[in-house]
Amino acid sequence: MTQGRNPTILEVFQQQGLSRRAFLQFCAATASLLALPAVRAAELPAKLGAMPRPTVIYLSFQECTGCLESLTRSFSPTIENLIFNTISLDYNDTLQAASGDAAEAAREDAMRKAAGKYVLIVDGAIPRLQDGAYCVIGGKSALDSLRHAAEGAAAVVAVGTCAAFGGIPYAAPNPTGAVPVQDLVGNRPVINISGCPPIPEVITGTIVYFLSFGVPELDVHRRPLMFYGNTIHDRCYRRPFYDKGLFAKTFDDEGARNGWCLYELGCKGPVTYNACATTKWNNGTSFPIESGHGCLGCSEPNFWDGGGFYRPLSSGFWHGNVGAELGGAVAAGAIIGAASAYAARHRQKATSGDK
Amino acid sequence: MDLLNIARGPALQWSLVVFAVGVVWRLAGILLLARKPDYTEPRSTNTWGGAVRMIVSRTWSKREFLDRTAFAQTIGYVFHIGLAIVVFGFVPHILFIRSLTGLGWPGLPSGIIYVTGALTLAALAAALVRRLTNPVLRLLSNVDDYFSWLVTVAPVATGLVAVAHLGARYETLLAVHIFSVCLLLAWLPFGKLMHSFLVFISRGTTGALLARKGASI
Amino acid sequence: MRALEAIPVVVETLDAETGVVPALLRELDDALQGLLDRGTHHLIDLSTMPMSAADRRALEQALGTGELTMELAALGRSQIRETSFPGVWWVRHQDPQGRTLAEHVEVAIVPEIAQAHASDIERGRRRLGTLIGRQTSGRGT
Amino acid sequence: MSEAALPPLETTGPRFGIKKPEQRHDMQGDMSDNERIAIAMRHFVRDFGAVAATWMESCVHCGMCAEACHFYVQTGDPKYTPIWKIEPFKQAYKREISPFSFFIRALNLKPKVTADELEQWQELIYDSCTMCGRCTMICPMGIDIAALVGLARHGMNKAGLVPHELWAAAQRAEQEGSPLGATAKVFQERVEWMGDEAEVEMHMNLDEADVLVTMSSIEIQKYPQSIAAVAKVLNHLGMRWTFRSDGYEATNFGLLSGNADWQKDMSMKLIDAAIRCKAKLLLLPECGHAYSAMRWAGANAYGKPLPFKVRHISEFLGEHIADGSLRVKKGLDTTVTFHDPCQVARRGGVFDPPRVALEALGAEVREMKDNRGMSWCCGGGGGVISIHRADELRYKAFEIKMRQVDETRAEKLVVSCANCRLSFDDSQKHFHWDKTAQSLLELVADNLAD
Q1: Residues D384-404: what's their mean pLDDT?
Q2: Domain boundary among D118, D134, D161
Q3: Taking Cα atoms as reference points, which of A125, A161, A164 lies closest to residue A146?
Q4: What is the pTM of this model?
């Protein structure tokens, strides 16, 4: 064991009795997952191998542990799990055995040791009202622990729509004043991996990419373009049905049975950027549309307030009662119109007086 | 996404309100003006028949005028019918109308809509060229004509661009498309587009008056 | 949940050749030249390539099989197969469940993954040292 | 105003009317420009009801009405586009009466109409518009442009912007009962003279009659045979009819010049005369705008339905031939083409009766390419024939009609409107054309069965 510094990722592989060939297998799989260009794929083993095993702090705030569930893929020891081992996950209050002051002390210690170099993963939104009283862990509010943890982080990875855009806690009426990570962390690069939950490979793939090549290319919402570059609609295998105008009208009609487009059943694919249609879920088994349900748009901001999961994307998005408002408008129009006609008649009578 | 939410939410809602107020205001302002009674002996009392007959017959030029009006009229119908097919045939549009009124009907394949949209755009362009070059039209045309043309072309153009995902992100293009529809709805009652309502009222009125005299319709 | 299985999922797959295979062959030819002149390695990652099933069949048929096939069992299983063109290797990596994680066509003397790496050799040698040590100590040195 | 002071008449030559003035006075009264504009707009605005407003709001500037107007078709000059002729009045409408007029005035979106604009429009509203209504037939929005021009003339008249000859004719009509000098005395003398000349029993100023017969000054002065003709027909039918010297002039130069008050006066003269003699039918002569003025506006001048029927002579002849009460002999066995007077046919709805009459006379009716409601105007209606300044333009318009008549290769040309006859006669002389327009009434009168 080489003392004095963290073991490199390759050394961690070997400590677990895995050969460099195993590491090369892992790099090949990750490169193809990230669709890295040939040059980068060739560099990956060298870069990733030489990386000292990074410290990763995983802080959970206003979240449902869905993202963690997705990340840990508890039901099958797959490649992602190994990634999980290659990164030194020094703190995760759900997974670690330790708890209470011991756990907090361990975290502080890990953060101090890898100050400025550890990767901070944040899961869940951060409530601001009553200066963070709605989410307090170990006597410290989420607000303070995020600020404190972010100080020493090399980068902050916001996992899940809650951390990236506020998600459910942020949805109207947002009683706790929840905000996403990017609203609080200004001075550190923030990478949003939105989704509710995000695809496991997308989380680990982004982390691996970050370890090897630094912050990946991000879109306008700071999401890695390699996973969030295309809309589901553009990559959906049912797209030909959309273009032919063949739509399922209900979840069990002939259209649904034939796998037609789910646009009329509220699919938000056209306005949702994610890798579901290509990388798919559960080891490439399927993704929501393939199993017959429209995309909810879970990787987009405010998707909870997007006007209903089963209302077609192009339907009106009203606040209040349309009928009443339009009725009122018609009445108002009639009154103004009648007034203008009356005024006009009055002007006419005024002129007919004189010869 | 929030630009899109503003567009398809409050912006569309307010433009529909302005549309409703404007249309009823203008119609009321016209129809509630004085109406002089006609005491002359009618040649026919089937004024409603005359109204309907004119509304139908004036949709196409009479034989005697056809050779001078066929070209202009064809351009007009290509983009009018084109607009109708695109607006009422494209499934997302139908779903929007259904969300507003509850009425829905089967749509056309999207491919046909894209082709029709392109044809409509071409016809609208031809109409503008004609308005800019024909001496009669140059004399008659004012700001309302050109602005109304712009306001009609914008939704078609932005719609096609949105569908083709050209340029910006899809939601931005969709938002721009919906904003252009908002502009169309809000402008309609105050400019020449009001002819979409007045065409029936004007033709009907004149048809009724002429039928009463037994004059040619 | 028998009802769910009843729903047939009709997936339209494009099964025509897209013309990518001739291009790949020309790339391999160029890479082989590079290997001979400069000893440079080259790798084509098939899984990120937009290839139809027909393309894949055509490529396999074009490259054929060579004399040497290797089977690697480490993290998952990998099959390293020399094609009928020496120096051109077809490598497939699978996860423990047999799902293909990545597929490459590599141009090299021997694919890097096949070679034993210095760090593995050194750990191997240490283990050998302890093994020898036990045997010599067994005889009371 | 004494006889001498009235504008002089041109009595020789094919066109009987106001003599061509050396010095034109196309502006009446000495009001200042602003006063003129103010009065014009006020009186123009007064006329606007829901119907005219609908038309003013509906134009989509498609330019198709130009394609139907003989003045544009023949000259190609865009200013003769029918809807353009009412542009200043549309401006006035938008500023004063339209639903958004308050904002249009406040933000001055539509500028005020200026005096010289109105003066410039005189030529468009009068010289180059016979109100024939062909543009109304093409407008895809169904705008009755001819009616709007009629309304526009009210404003022009109030502003004192009526062309010289029209104003002169209207003035003569208001003062001496006839635009062309056919005073009551002249009318009575002519009736007596025609009675002797054609040995026809004439009835003048009976206290009571079933039919009040009216004439147009053009016929009284230039085609007096029509007086005899109508008398012959009515005697042949054995009807109780009479002329009335207190109500004989059917033309209405109030309507043509745009003077609504004078139009009402002239109509009321006939109505009162008809009521005095308890007539059941007021028979209008061969005249176009007389039909519009009395048949379709008379009752409204009267304020309630008229106690008698109103019929145009061609309508009357056709109906009585059709029901057999008027028997004629086939004295006209030749090919004939009939020119439909715009105000009687297209605007008035009388299409078949003239053809029934012609066929009854044994003629083979050959329709022109554009006929009945689609017929081209003779170019002289709506007072244009009396405006000398408009002669060039009128002759150009007439070329279409001449060509269409020649195309039928019919031997005779028949018409049932004295104003059209003036236009045909004048143009015939101008183009040295071989066709002479003949009166339907006179043909019928010459072929009554014995």
Answers
A1: 94
A2: D161
A3: A125
A4: 0.84
